[in-house]
Amino acid sequence: xxxxxxxxxxxxxxxxxxxxxxxxxxxxxxxxxxxxxxxxxxxxxxxxxxxxxxxxxxxxxxxxxxxxxxxxxxxxxxxxxxxxxxxxxxxxxxxxxxxxxxxxxxxxxxxxxxxxxxxxxxxxxxxxxxxxxxxxxxxxxxxxxxxxxxxxxxxxxxxxxxxxxxxxxxxxxxxxxxxxxxxxxxxxxxxxxxxxxxxxxxxxxxxxxxxxxxxxxxxxxxxxxxxxxxxxxxxxxxxxxxxxxxxxxxxxxxxxxxxxxxxxxxxxxxxxxxxxxxxxxxxxxxxxxxxxxxxxxxxxxxxxxxxxx
Length: 309
Fold this sequence. Notes:
Layout: H1 6-15, H2 22-25, H3 27-35, E1 47-55, E2 58-66, E3 75-79, H4 93-103, E4 106-110, H5 122-136, H6 138-141, E5 148-153, H7 155-169, E6 178-181, H8 192-196, H9 207-216, E7 241-248, H10 252-264, E8 269-278, H11 289-307
Parallel strand pairs: 3-4, 3-5, 5-6, 6-7, 7-8
Antiparallel strand pairs: 1-2, 2-4
């Protein structure tokens, strides 16, 4: 196993005294920790607009980032991370900006409702509804339906994968591709990466059942593939995928297995593992050289996929 990059190790060491696993902190303290994190420098946008959509569970806030003033831009519907329990468009503002700058796409960041107050299927429904709204209102937004992708990091990647599965199953307009960044793709705590990084950094083995139970309940037999994409038996006919993983991450092996299954099902898939980094590393592009390199590579692949349409 490679060592952590020096800048990543330094960053984590400086914050170790303040960090505790989510399952130890509990819901409210974990949310406070996330929302109080210092906002890191991020690219300036041509325009940033807050809007509210008519959602399936009530009004649904989104934030629209436009990196340039081009009349027509590709679009990426983005779902933030946070184990479906913490996080917001505010705490993931820099991540949305980095994605917009790297891909050249308008990013529509979705402020979906969180568990445990809003368990499954609320966040999954809202992710799907937001994607359908962008597709249905593409012209008004300054994009085209065939230029709309879905993206997410961590639990948000799980939502993005679920949207792709549901669109296929309902024979609805599909995203042009899915960008899945260190996806928490299932409940398993048996993957080698979970055992190796059980104590973190960032996400621990104990956080997996804690967060899954918050959103899905404690009975895995009731899980849906739209919330746990690894349960989907058939992955054929899904949009092309970019699957991004971090070497030092409990989520690594589950996400990579899903990427390989996509490939085996005939889905064009770029599987990118970045060495020397941990879960959430792309949020710290100001501090991590590897994150800047990763964003450039991910952005290049995304731009190429948009250009092929």
